[in-house]
UniProtKB/TrEMBL annotation:
Superkingdom in the source lineage: Bacteria
Bilayer-spanning residue ranges: 12-35, 41-60, 70-86, 121-141, 161-183, 204-227, 239-261, 273-292, 298-317, 338-359, 389-410
Protein known as: Beta-carotene 15,15'-monooxygenase
Keywords of the record: Membrane, Transmembrane, Transmembrane helix
Length: 431
């Protein structure tokens, strides 16, 4: 009974991936044949038969058990017989007879087998969770009684019926943006740890792992919702709908990998993670300031950042334990070189950014460069350029990165020029 339950878990966990892989293999085999008009599906079957023979010979030479070899050849002959005698649709299951034994017995795929075995519980529950989420989309979207009942619940709360749609929309956003991804991330990580007990040292945390799982969950749930809205606008065959969502469900096997890597690495160092989050927050705040009060912020940074950086970084040793114990600490040659380049690049980046801003701003106060970037991004993302806060931040980020790129090459040129002038021994500037 336990083995049967485990087999069902493997089947449900890997079924979407197996179906998707089968369609890919059939498509790859059928595509070259379709280019030649006088060839039909039989030609694809011949290619599959050749692949079956090659794989069968490889399995024989690899020394797998005779029971598996007999099962492989029996199912191969059976599906070939069904294809020619009963139905051409038998070709749809034949790729499984090639791919499944390869995954099970191919030595070069040992890491893939370990990845699947370690995450089988996570894959199973993620597929169950996603299937329920997809069904809820169709249930809520196609059932008007649910919306009417929710509106009746809102009446005793003295919420006007005219605001009911807004309340439902807010609840939907709260559920979609927060609750559903959070629970999905927790589900996957919880069942992975239940299958693979891991002990975290005191200085390791999984905060970043849960956050990564949240963003990946948000991405895949967004795809499900967008697919629902797309399908609801056309009259689609139920089989086609199931096939589309099956393909999306198969992405769990691939999108889970970053979370898996983080889990087997026991998360992140707690102090380092907090430092990275603080740095990211400071960068975000600085980016907002650059976007909202550009001229004042850049002016302040241009004057003070190159001056303060050597102190902030170069004097950091003064709070080290070694210095506090009274031991002598001094800059290495690597630190001196790093501070020199960092100061020059930061100044040149801010200078170039300031020049671009001055050149781009019109008499009416419109930033031509930023507007061009925003219109380009809105065209690529197919969004309204008037919905601009995020696009404006992205445009400022692109301007900063563009300025940094130019400053990098400008700094290299300046350093080379200064070296030729001042480091020439014949000119006597340095002893």
């Amino acid at each position: 009974m336990k083995k049967a339950g485990l087999a069902i878990k493997y089947l449900l966990a890997l079924f979407p991936s197996v179906v998707t892989l089968t369609m890919i293999v059939v498509g790859i085999i059928s595509f070259p044949v379709s280019l030649i008009s006088n060839l039909d599906l039989v030609s694809s079957e011949i290619i599959i038969i050749v692949l079956m023979i090659i794989c069968g010979v490889r399995f024989f030479r690899s020394g797998i058990s005779k029971q598996w070899q007999v099962l492989y050849w029996f199912t191969s002959i059976l599906t070939i017989f069904l294809f020619f005698v009963w139905s051409k649709r038998a070709i749809l299951i034949q790729p499984l007879q090639i791919t499944v034994p390869l995954v099970l017995f191919e030595k070069n795929l040992q890491n893939l087998r370990k990845y699947i075995n370690d995450n089988i519980s996570a894959f199973f529950w993620l597929n169950v969770y996603d299937s329920i989420f997809i069904c809820l989309n169709f249930l809520v979207g196609t059932n008007k009684h649910i919306s009417e009942n929710i509106q009746k619940i809102l009446v005793p709360l003295n919420i006007p019926i005219s605001y009911a749609d807004a309340v439902l929309g807010a609840f939907f956003l709260f559920f979609w943006l927060l609750l559903a991804p959070v629970f999905r991330s927790w589900f996957g990580i919880h069942f992975f740890r239940k299958q693979n007990p891991i002990s975290l040292p005191a200085d390791r945390v999984l905060w970043g792992t849960y956050l990564l799982g949240y963003f990946l969950s948000l991405a895949i749930l967004t795809i499900y919702i967008n697919t629902y809205f797309t399908i609801s606008q056309i009259n689609s065959n139920p089989i086609f709908i199931m096939l589309v969502y099956t393909i999306y469900l198969s992405s769990n096997v691939f999108l889970w990998n970053p979370v898996y890597v983080s889990l087997i690495n026991l998360g992140e160092n707690k102090d380092k993670l907090i430092s990275n989050w603080i740095l990211s927050s400071l960068i975000l705040v600085l980016l907002v300031l650059v976007d909202q009060v550009e001229s004042d912020t850049i002016g302040i940074l241009t004057w003070f950042l190159p001056i303060l950086l050597p102190n902030f970084i170069g004097e950091l040793y003064k709070i080290s334990d070694k210095y506090q114990r009274g031991e002598k600490v001094s800059h290495s040659l690597k630190m001196e070189k790093h501070l020199y380049h960092l100061t020059m690049i930061s100044f040149n980046t801010l200078l170039i950014f300031n020049i671009i801003s001055i050149i781009s701003v019109t008499d009416e106060g419109e930033h031509k460069f930023k507007q061009f970037v925003i219109s380009t991004l809105s065209g690529l993302l197919k969004t309204d350029s008037s919905s601009g806060v995020v696009l404006s931040l992205f445009s400022s980020l692109i301007m900063v990165l563009f300025s940094l790129f130019l400053a990098w090459w400008l700094s290299k040129g300046i350093v080379k020029l200064l070296k030729n002038i001042y480091l020439d021994p014949s000119k006597g500037y340095f002893n």
